[in-house]
Design goal:
- Two copies of one chain form a homodimer.
- Chain A contains nine helices and no strands.
- The first copy, chain A, is mainly alpha-helical.
- Chain A folds into two domains: 51 residues, Homeodomain-like (Arc Repressor Mutant, subunit A, Orthogonal Bundle); 125 residues, Tetracycline Repressor, domain 2 (Orthogonal Bundle).
- Chain A is elongated and about 60 Å long.
- Chain A starts with a helix and ends with a helix.
- Chains A and B meet through helix 6, helix 7, helix 8 and helix 9 of A and helix 6, helix 7, helix 8 and helix 9 of B.
- Chains A, B: This is Transcriptional regulator.
């Protein structure tokens, strides 16, 4: 039953965001009694942290570590996979981390800490790839890999914000062009 | 009374976002009877569009058109003013456009259209400045000013998403460094 709740919450948090997704929506979606929720989770907040961990496992970080692929090709594959996920949902769901940061980080410290950790882990993985590309002489070393990684991660999150308004791929196109042709040079 | 409602809504939408801010919260905050709301606005959605227009007037677009200032200095002043606003609110409120795009664009077409228009107007203003900088030979012409403008606008929105998780200025710092030292070269 716990697994049913987590799976339903993953779907509903992603679809509706944190604030608009209540415990009843989650238990209805999981087809379990609302009362059973608190046998498994202390709070909606505690469940949201479990969902964030699970969401993190789907963020295609494996593509940043593909053997025998050049660093920037790996980075491109990573963002292409993320873009495809967004497109597959008709640009309607966004990123759970970005959604939670925007909606809930202000008033729920545990959510803010969870988003912060998720972004830090992600930025560290991107930074390692950029450092490799710098060592290969492909990316300028005038900027630290950490600054470039944080900038790109945020630019990606912002491209999603843009796409949710336009749903036409224009923000993703600008991201790929400027990130790979200008920033990572 | 209409003006009281708009001012209260501006504050409450900015503070709580779209979904968590109901009509009663707005009328309570405006110190007007809840029943009076619908004498002035057809819906919460209609009021949100008025608030978006008003918010747009505060987005420091005037700094993009300061006479006798170099294009990139104007662009920097613009983003610095936006950053200061966010810092002044303790990184807790974000951008109304970005918040609405993330929270409400999916299920409310009028909000999505409003955000899209706001981002388009903003991108156009940034693009004009970048074009000037390109004409002056300061920014590379390998990318169109529109693509660079859209990329920077989204990167800014994403930097806000990042700051709401960390509240330490690190995402803004990465934005200013990479935007002005790498992207706009």
């Amino acid at each position: 039953m716990r697994e049913q709740i987590v799976e339903a919450a993953f779907e509903q948090f992603h679809r509706h965001g944190y604030n608009a997704c209540g415990v009843k929506l989650i238990t209805d979606s999981a087809k379990v009694p609302k009362g059973s929720f608190y046998n498994h989770f202390e709070s909606k907040e505690a469940l949201a942290l479990v969902v964030m961990d699970r969401y993190g496992e789907t963020r295609h970080l494996d593509k940043l570590a593909t053997p025998k692929t050049a660093p920037l090709a790996r980075l491109r594959h990573h963002f292409e996979a993320l873009a495809q996920d967004i497109v597959d949902f008709g640009y309607e769901r966004g990123c759970v981390f970005g959604n939670f940061s925007t909606e809930a980080a202000d008033h729920i410290p545990a959510i803010r800490a969870g988003v912060r950790t998720a972004f830090d882990l992600w930025a560290t993985a991107i930074s390692a790839v950029i450092r490799e590309a710098q060592d290969d002489g492909i990316v300028t070393t005038t900027q630290s890999p950490d600054a470039l990684a944080r900038f790109l991660l945020n630019s990606w999150e912002g491209a999603i914000v843009g796409e949710r308004a336009t749903k036409d791929g224009s923000s993703f196109a600008a991201f790929f062009t400027v990130a790979f042709e200008v920033v990572l040079r």
